[in-house]
Amino acid sequence: MAFVQVVQVILIAGLSLVAGILAVLFVIQKAITKPFPVIKRRKEEKHFLDPIKIQNVDFPPVEDAPTVHLSVIIPAYNEEQRLPKMLEECMSFLEEKAKDETFTYEVIVVSDGSSDGTVSLALKYSKRYTVNKFRVLELLDNRGKGGAVRLGMLSARGRYLLFADADGATKFSDYDKLENNMKSITKDWESDGIVVGSRSHLEQDAIASRSLFRTLLMHGFHFLVWLFAVRSIRDTQCGFKLLTRSAAHTLFKNLHVERWAFDVELLYIAERLKMPIAEVAVNWKEIEGSKLTPVWSWIQMGVDLFLIWFRYTIGAWQLCDQNKEHVS
Fold this sequence. Notes:
Blueprint: H1 3-32, E1 47-50, E2 55-58, E3 68-76, H2 83-97, E4 105-112, H3 118-129, E5 134-139, H4 145-153, E6 158-164, H5 175-185, E7 194-198, H6 203-209, H7 212-228, E8 240-244, H8 245-254, H9 262-272, E9 277-281, H10 294-313
Parallel strand pairs: 3-4, 3-6, 4-5, 7-9
Antiparallel strand pairs: 1-2, 6-8, 7-8
Family: Belongs to the glycosyltransferase 2 family.
Protein name: dolichyl-phosphate beta-glucosyltransferase
Transmembrane segments: 6-28
């Protein structure tokens, strides 16, 4: 058999195998996957503790009109060591802005099933600033960063909602950059809009300080994000994103992924719904103590990226817009 014929046979066999695997996946995913996420929340997770009055208070219904300008959601899993520095910078910045009476805010720390002193630490800030400005949502089980951010977003009172990582890797004063860009892409909080903090301008410096293996992993992940999900944003993973209340409710009610790749699904949904999105360079520095395991976490995210694309493509996952019935 000629070499060309051998190559053709191999290609046909390979394509047949891939087609067979995709067909099996199609049947399995259609059978086991629900089209819309089921958002579970225990009774104990529907309220927060007022440490001054020593009583539990219910979080407001997500359908309520906003009562503060900005809500800051901080997901925290065993962050007793890194959280204090971040909160000091955050609260100092917000208190300074609040000298202008038109700016009101709240901070919600979401403890994602923490087993250390994260909750006790956060409650000290709640007592210092009162629950009007600082609330603690304690999740009984670890859900993953996306799950923690989602429940924080659905408990918030803000016209605009920012989620920020507990490690303080992003300089909090960069919020002003995000806010200014939000004004350029939306009319108000009732319109959809997302502004994404970005570290892409720091990529060359990061490559210089990383090993070749970690650099290859980074480029591989960026390629998979571009291939399967998000085309308009270079840095999907920076934990500093500002959303209007309208956008937050639509996106987080549709979100399925609760692990590290939730940012990608969030932006994928936003692109599918044609929401205005802006990307803004922010100051960022790497902080020790990351919960990411370099190889295993990248593999998990790679699998999640493929499944995000595959499930939406075959209709196993569907979108529900606030202003429309369903978006296929």
